[in-house]
């Protein structure tokens, strides 16, 4: 009898915690794989109440307001050097599940999303929309960051060190 | 500019409703108004007043600062910081004590995703005035103005080269 009660309690606890995360660990200090369940909201809206209906249409940083829990800013998606706003903006104001890594340090807490879904019975879609959207604007590139016109403009003007006139020494 | 969906409109509605006699109909209106307020702006109830602060520190992308995967400081990290800022990763200021302030707005410009203006500040040592909002382990900053910009002053490239990937 006691075993049956314990099993029921465990099942309830597992259901409440949501599905098991499938996120790939990156070995980052303070990382915890987890699935966040909550509503997509823009950070300024959540903090100040200034809420455009479209969550800023991709201009504002987004996060997940966990039901009855914390607000988690989603800082990174699955594309190198890129955030996750393209993966979340289509869910503005809606409930989703986000599979990823919560990075908790004494200085800051951020979420690195690797997959998103709105249907709990469906698969997670990879959080890689940034690359598709970038390539739709600029064409295919193996490394978007080296091909980005705005990045190249800034780095050409200010140099790779950010100081005009200071350039790497030529390789011998 | 973002529309303000705060409780003002809903509060006004409640105020107008409360001046009527408390008939059955008006009670229903109050209930509906409260419900509408919850739907329109759930964030307002959680919003907290901010402190005015002046922060001095280096601007960098939050991901590299937190992950430790790149050397996120000074000249060695400038190129990476530009890429990350243009990739839409949120940008922070790290002060001399190591505290991180995540920037959500500069002046009237609420574009904190892939903003070229912000990317041009990568690795710069700046002093900013603004409003700080603490929430769930993150210190957010709504910058009113950049009071000083010294440019990139932390020379790390001689020791670390260009991070990552080299030149």
Provide a quick synopsis of the model.
Chain A is α+β, with helices and mostly antiparallel strands.
Please describe what this structure looks like.
- The complex is a heterodimer of chains A (172) and B (167).
- Chain A has 6 helices and 6 strands.
- Chain A has 172 residues and is α+β, with helices and mostly antiparallel strands.
- The model of chain A is unreliable at 1-5 and 7-17 (pLDDT under 50).
- With 167 residues, chain B is an alpha+beta fold.
- Chain B has 2 domains: 8-46, no CATH class; 51-160, no CATH class.
- The longest helix of chain B is centred in the N-terminal third of the chain and has 17 residues, at 24-40.
- In chain B, 41% of the residues are buried.
- Chains A and B meet through helix 2, strand 3, strand 5 and helix 6 of A and helix 3, helix 4, strand 3 and strand 5 of B.
Read across the widest sheet of chain B, the strand sequence of neighbours is 1-2-3-5-4
The number of helices of chain B is 6
Taking all Cα atoms into account, the compactness measure Rg of chain B is 22 Å
Poorly predicted spans of chain A: 1-5, 7-17
Derived from helix and strand composition plus strand pairing, the structural class of chain B reads alpha+beta
Radius of gyration of chain A: 20 Å
Overall residue-averaged pLDDT value of chain B: 77
Helix content of chain A: 25-40%
* Element string of chain A (H = helix, E = strand): HEHEEHEEEHHH
């Amino acid at each position: 009898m006691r075993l049956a009660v314990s099993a029921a309690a465990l099942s309830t606890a597992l259901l409440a915690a949501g599905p098991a995360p499938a996120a790939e660990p990156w070995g980052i200090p303070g990382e915890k794989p987890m699935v966040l369940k909550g509503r997509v909201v823009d950070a300024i809206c959540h903090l100040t109440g200034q809420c455009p209906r479209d969550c800023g249409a991709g201009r504002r940083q987004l996060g997940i307001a966990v039901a009855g829990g914390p607000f988690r800013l989603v800082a990174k998606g699955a594309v190198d050097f890129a955030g996750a706003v393209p993966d979340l903006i289509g869910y503005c104001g809606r409930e989703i599940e986000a599979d990823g890594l919560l990075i908790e340090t004494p200085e800051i807490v951020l979420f690195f999303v690797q997959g998103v879904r709105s249907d709990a019975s469906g698969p997670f879609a990879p959080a890689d929309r940034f690359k598709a959207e970038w390539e739709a604007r600029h064409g295919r590139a193996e490394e978007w960051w080296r091909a980005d016109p705005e990045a190249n403009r800034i780095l050409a003007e200010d140099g790779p060190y950010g100081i005009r006139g200071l350039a790497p020494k030529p390789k011998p | 500019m973002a529309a303000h969906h705060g409780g003002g409109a809903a509060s006004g509605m409640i105020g107008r409703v409360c001046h009527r006699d408390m008939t059955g109909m008006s009670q229903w209106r109050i209930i509906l108004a409260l419900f509408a307020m919850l739907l329109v702006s759930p964030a307002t109830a959680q919003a907290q007043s901010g402190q005015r602060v002046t922060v001095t520190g280096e601007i960098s992308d939050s991901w590299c600062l937190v992950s430790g995967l790149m050397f996120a400081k000074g000249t060695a990290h400038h190129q990476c910081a530009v890429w990350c800022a243009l990739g839409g990763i949120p940008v922070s200021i790290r002060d001399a004590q190591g505290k991180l302030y995540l920037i959500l707005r500069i002046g009237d410009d609420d574009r904190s995703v892939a903003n070229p203006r912000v990317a041009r500040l990568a690795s710069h040592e700046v002093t900013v005035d603004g409003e700080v909002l603490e929430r769930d382990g993150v210190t957010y900053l709504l910058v009113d103005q950049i009071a000083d910009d010294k440019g990139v002053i932390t020379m790390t490239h001689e020791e670390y080269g260009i991070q990552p990937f080299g030149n």
